[in-house]
From TrEMBL:
Pfam families: Glyco_hydro_79n. This is Glycoside hydrolase. GO terms for molecular function: beta-glucuronidase activity. Keywords: Glycoprotein, Hydrolase, Lysosome, Membrane, Secreted, Signal. Belongs to the glycosyl hydrolase 79 family.
Length: 662
């Protein structure tokens, strides 16, 4: 029997890859069907090179390959209709795995289809060939695995984070906050969030201790209904000439009591942002002057202390530094006001076991302004210098995804981390750096980007990069609200970044370790001491859409990476195929020493999916809102880690010798 298959319009696949694939088919089926002498398949391939000939005409080349076996092979979603007549494979729109499954298992398979080429009793081969066919698009779309070696230096740390590095924000935006014809905030404001929703409570408790920063753009328009306020306490309302288009808003003490009830029962570590514009006046558009009136803040802090509410840190102002966002205050006056606030805190907390930190300025880093603030306020006034990051640009930017997946773009923000680290070391060594707010894309984030799997490439890379440059805390905008919330604004169901944050919080310890790596820029490796246990934990990010990395980890204390050793090149095509096949149900290695791996991928391979998949299992809440178990797979520590294209992995190595982590 001869089967003639025509394959054409293969514009998207390099010619060399097609030829390499068919050479493999020749060897594979020759071995598989060496006892069947009368079955042949003739494949006529029409290859269209990407380069045109002179005169603009495109050149076709015909290649004939003979395979002594029986197979049905559809390539580039184009098959001669008379070949697969009556089957789903004949559709010009290609085929899907469910269609193919029904086709293969059908009892009415006619001539020239898969069933006629195989004897009736060889169902096992049919099943094998089914999976073989279904794997072809994925296999052909990927480059051969690339071996990379990273060397972790565990003798000493290069930086240390706070115990509670992961932080999330609660914002003041009311439901009327809209951008780009979207109003994504709903009922997520500090003033109207459903604090009794069981999903909210369980999402926070899963962290055991989650830092929450209360603040945001409207922070400097919030007044506190305590003491002699002098006017009624009303929520924010739309106001054309108001800052950010809103009036002042009021926090009642009954609402503050409710918030603290939630914080206390869920173990929240509270950072609260104070109004730093109170009492000032507008000099001109965007510029405010005059001294800060501390009376309202003083009454509010006094009430908080009297109730025994635990506030770990007070932050002064929001985005008033440098040229400001909406409003700005000069660094000299800001520094003087911080001295006043420090005195208030010292007085109100006198004799208390609590000693809250003072944070400022909660704005975008401006080196000259930050330097002057430290010089004016002096030593031991500002405990933490906070800055904000929205390095992806506007939420409406159609190029958000391409920015997130561009390793060179992601690395640009490192300059801000380095410059702030230098500024603190030189002008305020008593202080430390926090990212007080970061949502990636500003104006409420990017719809179908900031709340989907693809954003975790940016988010986890940010956490790792920030910690490497001495950042103690990183506050994600937001816990809930906008497009960038860790929780869905209406259902409270976690978005993918929630699980990324939770895994970091549980696995990555305080100690940041140095890595030697000179391989592909699309592989971004980071290392920390493991949290609460011996050994180290790696964060591995694969930004490539086609390359699988096989990663070997070595200890910088024991070996020296020789030139050229980091990249061993590519496997043979046969090895590539063998390593691409996953046998479901196979047990983990029985080796004595195992590591834990947590592989993160999107559901159905869709980067815009709102469902995170951990080690092949979609992460879903239970019916009562309980966070699912985040269980690793156990792998023989002597095997390389395999990192699929466009995926992320945490890898814990419990027996890795790292004196810095002891």
């Amino acid at each position: 029997m001869q089967l003639r298959i025509f394959l054409g319009e293969c514009k998207d696949i390099p010619e060399s890859s097609v030829l390499q694939w068919f050479r493999f088919l020749q060897r594979f089926f020759a071995s598989l069907f060496k006892q069947q002498q009368n079955v042949e398949v003739q494949i006529l391939v029409l290859l269209l090179p990407l380069r045109p000939r002179q005169g603009g005409a495109e050149r076709w080349r015909r290649t004939r390959l003979w395979i002594p076996a029986a197979t049905l092979f559809c390539f580039c979603n184009r098959v001669q209709p008379n070949l697969c007549s009556g089957s789903p494979l004949s559709s010009d729109n290609g085929w899907s795995s469910p269609d193919l499954l029904r086709f293969v298992t059908s009892t009415t398979i006619r001539i020239r289809t898969l069933g006629d080429l195989i004897s009736a009793g060889e169902m096992s081969f049919q099943v094998f060939l089914l999976f073989f066919l279904c794997s072809l698009p994925k296999i052909l779309a990927q480059d051969p695995p690339v071996h990379e070696t990273i060397v972790v230096k565990g003798a000493s740390t290069i930086a240390e984070t706070d115990d509670n590095f992961v932080c999330a924000t609660l914002d003041w935006w009311p439901s009327e906050k809209c951008n780009y014809d979207q109003c994504p905030w709903g009922q997520s404001s500090v003033l109207n969030l459903d604090l009794h929703h069981p999903f909210l409570t369980k999402a926070i408790r899963a962290f055991n201790t989650l830092r929450i920063r209360v603040g945001g753009s409207l922070q400097d328009q919030v007044v506190y209904d305590v003491g002699d306020l002098g006017f009624p306490c009303h929520p924010f309302r739309k106001m054309v000439d108001g800052l950010f288009g809103f009036s002042k808003g009021c926090l009642g003490m009954d609402r503050w009591d409710e918030l603290n009830l939630l914080f206390n029962k869920t173990g929240v570590i509270v950072t609260f942002g104070l109004n730093a514009l109170y009492g000032r006046h507008k000099i001109r558009k965007g510029v405010w002057g005059g001294a800060w009136n501390s009376s309202n803040a003083h009454s509010f802090i006094k009430y908080t202390v009297s109730k025994g509410y635990r506030v770990d840190s007070w932050e002064f102002g929001n985005e008033l530094s440098g040229s400001g966002i909406g409003a700005s205050v000069g660094a000299e006056q800001y520094g003087k006001d911080l001295i006043s606030l420090k005195a208030i805190l010292s007085d109100l907390y006198k004799g208390s076991r609590q000693h809250p930190l003072l944070l400022a300025p909660g704005g975008f880093f401006d080196q000259q302004w930050y330097t002057q603030l430290l010089q004016v306020s002096g030593s031991n006034v500002v405990d933490v210098m906070t800055h904000h990051i929205y390095n992806l640009g506007a939420g409406v930017d159609p190029h958000l995804m391409s920015k997130i997946l561009d390793p060179h773009y992601l690395s640009r923000i490192s300059k801000a981390f380095k410059d702030l680290q230098f500024t603190i070391q030189r002008h305020g060594p008593w202080s430390s750096a926090w990212v007080g707010e970061s949502g990636g894309a500003y104006n409420s984030g990017g719809r179908l980007v900031s709340n989907t799997f693809v954003n975790s490439f940016w988010y986890l890379d940010q956490l790792a990069m920030a910690s490497k440059y001495g950042t103690k805390v990183y506050c994600r905008q937001s816990l809930i609200g906008g497009n960038y919330g860790l929780l869905n604004v209406t259902t409270f169901i976690p978005n993918p970044d929630y699980y990324s944050a939770l895994l970091w919080h549980r696995l990555m310890g305080k100690g940041v370790l140095s890595i030697d790596f000179s391989g592909s820029p699309f592989l971004r490796p980071y290392a920390h001491c493991s949290k609460g246990k011996e050994g180290i934990t790696l964060l591995l990010i694969n930004l490539s859409n086609s390359t699988k990395f096989h990663i070997t980890v070595r200890n910088g204390m024991n070996i020296k990476l020789h030139e050229g050793e980091a990249n061993h090149g590519e496997d043979s095509f046969m090895e590539n195929f063998k390593k691409s096949v996953t046998w479901i149900g196979k047990k983990a290695s029985d080796g004595a020493v195992q590591r834990q791996e947590y592989h993160l991928t999107p559901k159905d391979g869709n980067l815009r999916s709102r469902t995170m998949v951990l080690n092949g299992n979609p992460l879903k809440l239970t019916e009562d809102g309980t966070i699912p178990a985040l269980d690793p797979v156990l792998v023989d520590v002597n095997l390389p880690t395999s990192l699929a294209p466009l995926s992320i992995a945490f890898v814990t190595l419990p027996n890795f010798e790292a004196p810095a982590c002891a």
